[in-house]
Write a structure and sequence with these properties.
Blueprint lengths: L6 H23 L1 H8 L19 H17 L6 H20 L3 H5 L2 H15 L9 H7 L2 H19 L9 H5 L1 H8 L14 H21 L11 H9 L5 E5 L11 H5 L6 H4 L15 H5 L6 E5 L2 E5 L2 H7 L15 H4 L6
Antiparallel strand pairs: 1-2, 2-3
Bound molecules: iron/sulfur cluster (SF4) (3 copies).
Length: about 350
């Protein structure tokens, strides 16, 4: 099994291809084609990256709230469907992508999610300690993503359009987004990490952006997916997760389930509900559809990644035993067995 295809290896291959595509796609296949293919990818494929393949839906959403909706309300009286239609199209393309993949964007495509996973793997190679959220502390962090979505993506851009806040808050979330720094640095463009001293607001935003980027990088060495906990995209996905066909499914009951907690140990988002709840309650708003819980669950068919009624991948004790030889649920690599342990000398 150590060289066999596993769900994690398949996912990593998809993540690497999508990382190259979202960061360099425009340079590789031309912006027109790349833009047609990706449309408004609901992943943090940054519009500030000049070589990318399309862009994150958050930027047109903020711009339209700022320049279309907000400014047209100010002009009042010119408020008409002409201003709502572009915003509607952004939401429609976004919804179309969401309907097909929804949370799988996080677990399989988002460049910032992938980079955080790589940094965590580096932390394991360096044998750094692992930090996890407890059940209580994760509960305190979870509401932050909703606050970021409402304030930074919706309210501030609209307020900028209405003239209540400064122009730079017209894309307030993009001003501090660490994906903007990560993806542009990958194209050797250092501009987005530089602090902007043009005015106080620009200085505050650019300093916050660089600080958040550094903080996320350091945290990711010992914690899985630190930025995802507060990401507004996670909240946007969560709004639609109950109506999309691709989801994490769990059986309605199980006598032994909840005792091993292997799924919770494997979960990069510290979702304890996956171990202790059943049915649809186990599919939490913070799930990224990475499938690690399914891989490590020893109960046949208890957990599954499903597309509609079809199980794409489901838990099995046989798979789990083989899978557990590659890495531990928390992502730490398994120690290779010594030759003598693997091939014990025959008894005399
Ligand atoms: S939650 Fe994480 S993986 Fe999902 S869009 Fe945000 S940064 Fe990317
Ligand atoms: S790993 Fe499977 S059996 Fe164990 S608690 Fe999680 S869902 Fe239940
Ligand atoms: S609940 Fe399962 S699929 Fe969802 S993030 Fe956790 S490990 Fe991944």
């Amino acid at each position: 099994m150590t060289n066999a295809l596993t769900l994690s290896r398949l996912r990593m291959a998809v993540q690497v291809v999508m990382l190259v595509f979202t960061v360099y796609g425009g340079a590789l296949m031309g912006h027109y084609l790349a833009d047609k293919v990706t449309g408004s990818l609901p992943a943090l494929s940054c519009a500030y990256d000049q070589q990318n393949a399309g862009y994150c839906v958050l930027i047109p959403m903020q711009h339209q709230l700022h320049h279309r909706v907000g400014e047209s309300i100010v002009r009042a009286q010119q408020f008409s469907v002409d201003y709502i239609i572009p915003f509607g199209f952004t939401m429609l393309t976004f919804l179309a992508f969401f309907f097909v993949l929804n949370k799988a964007f996080c677990g399989w495509i988002c460049p910032l999610g992938t980079v955080q996973e790589f940094v965590y793997k580096l932390g394991r190679k360096l044998k750094l300690g692992i930090r996890r959220f407890t059940q209580d502390s994760v509960g305190r962090v979870r509401p932050v993503k909703w606050a970021v979505l409402i304030l930074m993506v919706l309210v501030l851009p609209l307020a900028a359009g209405l003239g209540y806040t400064s122009y730079v808050t017209g894309d307030a979330y993009c001003q501090v987004c660490p994906s903007r720094v990560v993806t542009t640095l990958m194209t050797a463009d250092p501009k987005q990490i530089a602090v902007n001293t043009a005015d106080t607001t620009a200085f505050a935003f650019s300093a916050a952006r660089s600080a958040i980027f550094g903080f996320v990088l350091i945290l990711a060495l010992g914690m899985r997916q630190p930025f995802c906990r507060v990401c507004p995209m996670l909240a946007l996905h969560a709004l639609f997760r109950r109506i999309v066909p691709l989801r994490l499914a769990k059986k309605q009951s199980g006598d032994q389930c909840g005792k091993c907690k292997a799924c919770y140990q494997a979960c990069p988002m510290d979702i304890h509900e996956v171990a202790f709840e059943f049915g649809s309650k186990a599919f939490h708003a913070d799930c990224t559809m990475c499938g690690r819980c399914v891989e490590f669950c020893p109960d046949d068919g208890m957990l599954a990644l499903k597309l509609g009624p079809v199980a794409l991948f489901q838990s099995s004790s046989a798979y789990m035993k083989r899978r557990a030889k590659i890495d531990k649920p928390d992502g730490a690599p398994c120690k290779p067995k010594s030759k003598s342990a693997a091939n014990p000398a025959p008894a005399e």
